[in-house]
Amino acid sequence: MKYLGYVFEHLRKDLRLEWRSRDAINGMLFFVLLMVVVFSIAFDPAGYPSVTRQISGGILWVGLLFASMTALNQSWSREQRNQVLEAQRMAPSPASALFVGKALANMLFVLAVEAVLAPIFVVFFNLHVLGNAKLLALILPLGTWALVVNGTFFAALGLRARNRELLLPLILLPLSLPAVLMMVQATTGVLTGELDPIYLRSWITQLAGYDLIYTVVCVLLFETVLNAE
Amino acid sequence: MKYLGYVFEHLRKDLRLEWRSRDAINGMLFFVLLMVVVFSIAFDPAGYPSVTRQISGGILWVGLLFASMTALNQSWSREQRNQVLEAQRMAPSPASALFVGKALANMLFVLAVEAVLAPIFVVFFNLHVLGNAKLLALILPLGTWALVVNGTFFAALGLRARNRELLLPLILLPLSLPAVLMMVQATTGVLTGELDPIYLRSWITQLAGYDLIYTVVCVLLFETVLNAE
Amino acid sequence: MSTAAPIRSETAAAAASLDSVSKIYGAFAALRNVTTSFPAGSSTVILGENGAGKSTMLRVLAGLITPTRGKAIVFGGPPHLHRHRVAYMSHSTMLYDELTAMENLTYFATLHRGDGCACVGSPEMALRAVGLDPALTRPVGQYSQGMRQRASLARVLQTDPELLLLDEPFSNLDVKSAGQLVELLADFRTWPVPGGGSRTLILTTHQASLAEPLADRTLTMRQGQIVDLSTGTNG
Amino acid sequence: MSTAAPIRSETAAAAASLDSVSKIYGAFAALRNVTTSFPAGSSTVILGENGAGKSTMLRVLAGLITPTRGKAIVFGGPPHLHRHRVAYMSHSTMLYDELTAMENLTYFATLHRGDGCACVGSPEMALRAVGLDPALTRPVGQYSQGMRQRASLARVLQTDPELLLLDEPFSNLDVKSAGQLVELLADFRTWPVPGGGSRTLILTTHQASLAEPLADRTLTMRQGQIVDLSTGTNG
Amino acid sequence: MARSSTLRTVAWLWLAATVAVLVVGFRQAIFLAPMEETMGNLQRIFYYHLAHAILGLIFPYINLAASLAFLYWRRRDPLKALTADALAVASAEITVLFVGITLATGMLWGKPAWGIWWTWDARLTTELILWLLYISYLMLRRFSPTGQTGVLSAVLAVFAAIDIPIVYMSIQWWRTQHPAPVFGPEGGGIDPAMVPAVLWNLAGWAMWGIFLIALRFAVERRHQIAEQDAALLALEASLETPQ
Ligand code: HEM
Ligand SMILES: Nc1ncnc2c1ncn2[C@@H]1O[C@H](COP(=O)(O)OP(=O)(O)OP(=O)(O)O)[C@@H](O)[C@H]1O
Ligand SMILES: Nc1ncnc2c1ncn2[C@@H]1O[C@H](COP(=O)(O)OP(=O)(O)OP(=O)(O)O)[C@@H](O)[C@H]1O
Ligand SMILES: [Mg+2]
Ligand SMILES: [Mg+2]
């Protein structure tokens, strides 16, 4: 209970900070919009309509992957600015609460972005969901959490590195590959409606498993990372 | 002549700095490599071989776009670190030479990355160039310069901004969209061999025109940006 | 993370001590085999040239870096066991620029509460003590250097620490502001500790003259070693 | 960018001057209607509290920021016309961390050459003058604070400036290093100027006592204004 | 004082005239213009689409001109430069609005006309890029450090303006799904009965756009002047205090 109290306190702080600046989330939204446009220009969905549905799952997640990576890179920068991180390290509250709070805050941001993005995506790619659309409400949060939890963790890990912006993708991309595979397969399955429901379920279960394992590992190891110096 | 001397001096300095650390080029290489892997997982080239050739031009350029954007964001960080930029502003040599030198250096880095990337790309996507492969030797440098020249310029413009990492894509992506369109169309045209040579030529000419116009504007306005304060 | 045996061993005079501590960065030794102790209730000023290892020593005591060799002991145990009794202020504010001083302090206060110990002063009081108005709605990022330094000090004072570590608290301050800070710190030393016990102060500075009123003990460092320890200029 | 009419008007006594200059950031006036001039050949120490506007004034003179109102005049023209005769050193090194001091200096020297003016001293000489070994192969990033300060000084000295602007050159330096710096600067003022003329020095500091040997004129600022100007303590 | 009250009267008169013209335009477009054979009543969206599209290509030029003026005056006459900056923001915002409406009406029309909301043809794509460019212009204004906003955004405005002629020429340069222009030398021409509706709407929306720009300009100016006054006040107050 105490622990949840700390988590809530950290989450509230992050949301408040974000609310104060608000630029980040606006920028983020615009960035994702731009990604969609770049992808659609690059992959010309109108040119090959038959192809579109098959690659749109991939495009969606690759776009979100890069967008959230850009955002996550920034997510500890406020802690870093005035050495606030050292104040956090000196605080007697558990370090992992800080991590969970920030991951939740990031999750909320990315979900907000997705909510705006979804309709635009549908329009630009001229999509009709042929499968069970409700499953998307399960796949999207699971996939997002997979990106966010590792992203938050490794952004903290890379904080003191020289080439911070470059480092995060280098670590995060290989780690996220399995998750990306699962999300893309599941999403494409729902969009095309061609995938056997049994396979679909297995992809989703695996994704949930991935989330669970990595969340536990992140929470357990965060204190070590924070006090790495 | 004097001007070229300054440009050369700046270029040499940037190359030497990069050689000392090799951060940018290594990071970029790995990043692009990962992009290729992510994309091949997300788009499953083996699954839809017929599609691959049509989207591979897009994948190539989107990958390069994001990789170079990440690297370009860093390209002025060395100048910023110890306020070296102020020393540059105080120097009597022309400001635009500094810009041209850095843009050339960045161009060399990205070209190096492309040289390594090309064979890997061919292998992963199992590509055979069906059109006139020699044209690629024209399209790649033209497209790269289009990305690099604006990227270098706007990285300098965003230097003192609050959300630097986020700002660059927000400005650069819309500006580069026409160029991306041209590069992708030209590249895909060469890869598939389906595009009428007349159209192909027109895409390439347009790309060259884009490069020319933006280079001139960048060189003319750089001093203003450098002394914006 | 059980709070092992000797919690109250500081009755044995030392609030903190270093036992042949070395800290090596790459091939460079920032601290070389330093052994010293800081008596409970004392106030120590650490002087020394650039790169002498002053900041490194404070950070070892704060538990922010682990020594390469040797041991740091704070209140009889490793530094991280007694986080609620120790506070560290560096030359950065260690506060969020976008929040007001009050919001910052309240946030950090909640992180210190719990653990069955209510050893946290109120943020308002701490702000008043350093001469800032708790009702100020400007975010800390818009404060002047002097106000920041005060807010930063309020952050460490509100947790009511028994061991206070200050790294160059006067740097970039003009003489008047610095004087006020010294007075405040001298006052802080007299505040009573709830459970009984005394307050220990360790600070580094380049301006020895400014810190004189606080210098029970003056410790001089050079090249990672303690080269001089003089006691009793005052206090 | 033609070097307009009055290049040598500093024979009319002022190397640089400010003509009712104000610099306003948002709604905050960092400089308020400052009018002053710095005679050619003089050496001026600027004192003042935090936020008094000292750095702002130097940066206006260096042409790094444009005043909101009023005009800065350097050698009879706007500051950016005489870049090769002015040098500015801030508390950062303004050098690339990854290059050695020699590489840094050679690079900046080439940027100053040209314009038909060979008014650039050699990097080796400048490094020797500040007491650094030109053959040192360590990059500047691994220098100690004192060595950096020296290298930074060498950067400005090698361009053989007639007007030298220094922003807190002694901050973060220990007393001994600072003393050496002061000596070097005093020496610099006696170096002959190739085309005839004299060397002008303007520096800010919080440690008035250290800079005393350089204080022909002492200028005190408060809240963006000059509140005191005293001449002739020495020199 | 007198000047500002006449200005206010002019503004109100202008607004009244605008509304009047728009009402006429509405009547012309919805009730008087003949129905088009293939698309029926839906075609009436055309009058709004066209007016906004054309104006959306004109307003960014105001932004460009103001930005260039800003860069020219920046050192020479800071006060004039500030005015130019205010005009630049105003025109950029209204550009975003008008181009946005073009996109929206175009999409609304595209769904029944082409069966899809959106397609990546050159006209649509370049128009979208134009919209994105001016959004990024506004973004830059928010992100840029105080004191440099004007310069940095003016520079971006020059880059962005390069896209305007490309949008205009897009239908000539590339094959597009979007129909060819109806006016101009190669235009197919439209039913003369539709001309009044086109012209009335064009005039009305142009007046509306100009009104919005003027309004936004006035607000921005007031903002700038308030800021200056605050600074001046602080400056003067401090000058009075004895030293
Ligand atoms: C600068 C931008 C634009 C201009 C100047 C423009 C102008 C026009 C004109 C003059 C017509 C009437 C053509 C005719 O009836 O023969 C038209 C039709 C149309 N426009 Fe646009 N437009 C622009 C952008 C757009 C955009 C961005 C969209 C879609 C999002 C769009 C969608 C349409 C549609 C669906 C039609 C009707 C097509 C048809 O009749 O087949 N337009 N436009
Ligand atoms: N993270 C680090 N990596 C490498 N070297 C370091 C690191 N931190 C400190 N040092 C080195 O350790 C030495 C001691 O540093 P420290 O910061 O303790 O000095 P200091 O006495 O506080 O000096 P100052 O008065 O300049 O603050 C310095 O030479 C410094 O270069
Ligand atoms: N870029 C800026 N934006 C906003 N305010 C600024 C900026 N630069 C300086 N100021 C403000 O202008 C005032 C004068 O700053 P300046 O750096 O000139 O002071 P200073 O006399 O050098 O002080 P210090 O002794 O602390 O270096 C300060 O209050 C500062 O907050
Ligand atoms: Mg230190
Ligand atoms: Mg200063």
Keywords:
heteropentamer; C: 235 residues; alpha/beta; Rossmann fold; 6-stranded mixed sheet; 3-stranded antiparallel sheet; 26% helix; globular; disordered N terminus; E: 243 residues; mainly alpha; 7 helices; 79% helix; binds protoporphyrin IX containing FE; binds adenosine-5'-triphosphate; binds magnesium ion
Can you summarize this structure?
The complex is a heteropentamer, with two copies of chain A (229 residues), two copies of chain C (235 residues) and one copy of chain E (243 residues). Chain C is of the alpha/beta class and 235 residues long. Chain C is built from six helices and nine strands; from the N terminus they run βββαββαααβαβαββ.
Strand content of chain E: under 5%
For the terminal residues of chain C, how far apart are their CA atoms?
Answer: 38 Å
Q: Helical element count of chain C?
A: 6
Q: Kindly state the mean pLDDT of chain C as a whole number? A: 84
User: What Rg of chain C is obtained from the alpha carbons, in whole angstroms?
Assistant: 17 Å
In terms of structural class, how would the helical and strand content of chain C be classed? alpha/beta
Secondary-structure element series of chain C: EEEHEEHHHEHEHEE
Total domain units of chain E? 1
CATH fold-level topology of chain C = Rossmann fold
In this entry the ligands are:
protoporphyrin IX containing FE, adenosine-5'-triphosphate, magnesium ion
- First-to-last CA distance of chain E: 37 Å
CATH superfamily of chain C: P-loop containing nucleotide triphosphate hydrolases
Query: Helical proportion of chain E?
Result: over 70%
Quickly give the structural class of chain E: mainly alpha
Query: Beta-strand percentage of chain C?
Result: 25-35%
Largest interface: A-B, 44 and 44 residues
Low-confidence stretches of chain E: 184-188
String of helices and strands of chain E:
HHHHHHH
Q: Determine the fraction of residues in helical runs of chain C and give it as a percent range.
A: 25-40%
CATH class value of chain C: Alpha Beta
Q: Can you give the mean pLDDT of chain E?
A: 84
